[in-house]
## 1
Amino acid sequence: MSENDQKKSSRTIIGANNYYERDISVGGDFVGGDQTNINYSNVQNTLTQFKTIYDKIDANGNLSPSEKTDLKADVKDIQTEADKGDKADESFLARRLRNILRIAPDIFDVVVATLANPAAGFSIVAAKIAQKVKEEESNR
């Protein structure tokens, strides 16, 4: 906020349990309670990343309609669980990833890349689980 935008007041201001009776210069954020900032760019980036996965599932001509439905449900479950960050259930994620790997290895690779991408904003836990499932499968 520039100096021109700042306002002076000699009034009594009461609000959010704050009481001031003196000259006040106001500039920037004044928060009398909890302030919550939401970064929508991460949310949008996550949605874009997963839309790519759903589009690849739809475009895959080798999958039956029921397989596509199952894959989409598994991807949705992974997205929801991965959003929990460090509180994500590792065994839940691993089961969904193994199911995707079994049905469509190419889709699995896209899901793993999405979870491992730092720009997607998922926790390291989700990326490590995805990598572990990938390594287990390659050792078979």
## 2
Amino acid sequence: MAFGASGPDSPRKPKAKRPRVEDPSSPGVRLIKTSRGELWFDDGNLVLAAGGTAFRVYKGILAKSSPVLADVLSEPQPEKCEGCDVLHLRGDDPVDVARVLELIFCSPDLYYDGKPVRFSVVASWIRMADKYKMHRILDHALARLRSFFSDDASQWRDALRNHASRSIKVNAEDAIAAVKLARLTGTFSLLPTALYTCSQLSSPTLLFGVFRDDTSGTVEKLAEDDIVRCLDAREALTRLNLLSTFQVWNPRVSHMCMDTVNCLATFEHQTRAIREGSVVHQYTLSATIREVIGDVYDAFILCFACEREIEKRGEKARQDVWRMLPTFFGLDMPNWMLDTQ
């Protein structure tokens, strides 16, 4: 029997299976190994392919959202899939693509509702909107991001304590991606608080980065220059914190002190402990002063007036950190304002 001839003992040619995206004989050969994404409108007229995933959507709506894609789609596309034009989005994470397409085609109400969205979703919107000039989406997403990484001290303090603002949910590790998004979009007002949050992360997290909160397996890592900024700022903040601790516990009671003997003894005890290195309070930008030094209130005697004096000094220490925050990271931001609320 000649090579390639068919016979009873030769393997039978299997029946052709309908691929998930296209038939192998169609012009869109490169889509053979592409899986179908959840966003697939059967009556759509455009297939987008990104990172091994395909999405079937409506060309006109997508073009209206992005002048970049509108320009590309104005030209004939060489590939077809089930009668639709095929456009490859090269270098785009399919998770990012899916999220921005869902916003455009399925969840336009997210523009208007007040519900907080996960940081990773907002980050996807920003990356895609910046690349494809989706101006409305970019403005919307950056507004959500600014609501957390704010240049308003009290607003940012509340968001940091709650791990969320009114419109976005954020974990501390998300600050790494926030720094990169700030630089990507030129939204430099985000940098002081985002870099500060990074500087409070563990050293391994700061140096090696974190995985994105999705299935892409992508690691978010700061640029080397920003890692150095965070390490230098951490050292400077530690020095300032030690100085602030001395200033807060300066053994000088309130001029309205009602128990000079016991209050002065408490001040002097704290000052000695600071010198010996057994006490250094962390005047972070998120904690209240009472949270910072609540153990002192519980263990030692202070009159009401001296408690208020300590809280006033502690608040000043925190405001000093806020006022100088950009300089810790080598940022030239002359319009940075001190919020004294």
